[in-house]
């Protein structure tokens, strides 16, 4: 088994002493090395500064640091999609959208530990907001009648200082021989731990499985067997929206869906 290509992501959200959140996603793959930085107001989540760093590229060597002004003044929260889309054109780099998007996701997750700053009076009030907002969106929030752990039962408590949230992701492609490949994806963060394994004939899935090693509730783990639905799917020909449908939509796990989508994107990058 020969390793052909791998990509690694690290997202970190820290609270500073200046009422700002310092958030970044560092990315390293076989061809590239880049970082997306955000400085965000701890109360409003308004982006005060966005910075793009590039240290290594598969094309002509770029070693640059620049301000990403289309993101200045945008809210680093749900609904930031239009501002994030402008980043690709501004930097002439579609990868920038993925990295800044991951950084925003990290900030949303860090809200768990910013209740008073975000206007919540209690953990129960925060939970209620998510029950209403996220209802039907994933395995957990589609099966609240079966859930035995609340969010803060899983997290522990709502007090953190300094480092608020971290997430590691990695995807690797291995050659098995005779046009057969193994594609793996792993995610480990402050709240979740997920693994997927895809055996491919070319880009067509022959076997798929995975596991949720750590999740808010045992009901979340029921999303893993849905990976079997990927059998015979061509990963080069399916959109993320279609992929979400195959993996259960609201009865699936958003982190499994994201991880499989990341793996599919790896195939496109490796073929470039």
Automatic annotation (TrEMBL):
InterPro entries: DUF2889. Pfam families: DUF2889. This is DUF2889 domain-containing protein. It comes from Desulfosporosinus orientis (strain ATCC 19365 / DSM 765 / NCIMB 8382 / VKM B-1628 / Singapore I).
